[in-house]
Amino acid sequence: MKHCKTGTVMKDDVVRAEPGTPFKEVVRLLAEHRISGLPVVDPGGKVLGVISETDLLTRPAAGPGSAERRFRLPRPGRAARRPDARARALTAGQLMTAPAVTVRAGDSIAEAARTMARHSVERLPVVDEQNRLVGIVTRRELLQVFLRTDDAIRREVVDEVLVRTLWLAPHAVDVTVADGVVTLAGELEQRGEVQVALRMTKEIDGVVAVVDQLTHRVDDSRLRPDEQVLHGVADGWLRRL
User: Fold this and answer.
1) Which residues 6+ apart lie within 8 Å of 113 measured at CB?
2) CA distance 8 to 108
3) Which end of the chain is more exposed for a tag (fewer CB within 10 A), N or C?
4) Which of 42, 32, 3, 27 lies closest to 142, judged by CA?
């Protein structure tokens, strides 16, 4: 299946900062472009880290005179010194979160979405093989995949899953799609075919959920390897004759 790639939805005109960019300039960039974060790159374009509004708020919140600094007891260790370092940050390099969580332009939108969810971030710098910045993708861009029509999703289920992967006739399974929810109904020869159909349908771009109404005639998970040959591809060809 051809998944939509991150590169097709990313923005390639990226607002960025360098390690020496002053704190106030970072704030100005975010305000001027109405964004909530940006990547920090070196002169060669390699991504070093990212700055978010949360990082910026660390400085005034823990600045001189705050109640937190006046009453907090010092704690040894690197982890304890990090908030204080950010509170004194004067440049993007001192303020950024590093290393940055990134994706490649060739990654599928589903992969990018999983990366974003796993790291609880709202944007991902898109990099090339040398870790150089080529774009940026946000939650809004990743959600575009769910704008696919139900008809387009159904056609891909039939063409890619049923016909090209399982070698079945287009009408072998009843496929219906409503608001991105795909329902598969009917009877297949093997249990393994059912599992493949469900797994691949879930991976199709734009699918919100899959309703399983499939049954099978043979539980091939319990067959010996030599028996599985008899119920494999050759058997599939016979069923279509």
Assistant:
1) 142
2) 10
3) C
4) 3
Look up tokens 């978010």; give the residue.
52
Tokens matching residue 39: 């990547």
Task: Say which amino acid occupies 5.
Answer: K
Contacts of 96 (CB under 8 A, 6+ apart): 19, 40, 48, 49, 50, 51, 55
Q: Which residue shows structure tokens 């991976």?
A: 203
Q: Are 169 and 240 in contact (CB under 8 A)?
A: yes
Q: Residue 113 gets which letter from DSSP?
A: H
Helix, strand, coil shares of the chain, percent, nearest 5, are 45, 25, 30
Instruction: State the DSSP H helix or E strand holding residue 230, giving kind and residue range, or none if neither.
Output: helix 225-230
The residue written with tokens 């589903």 in the block is 110
Q: What is the CB neighbour count within 10 angstroms for residue 65?
A: 6
Quick one: tokens of 71? 């009453």
- How does DSSP classify residue 13? S
Model pTM greater than 0.85? no
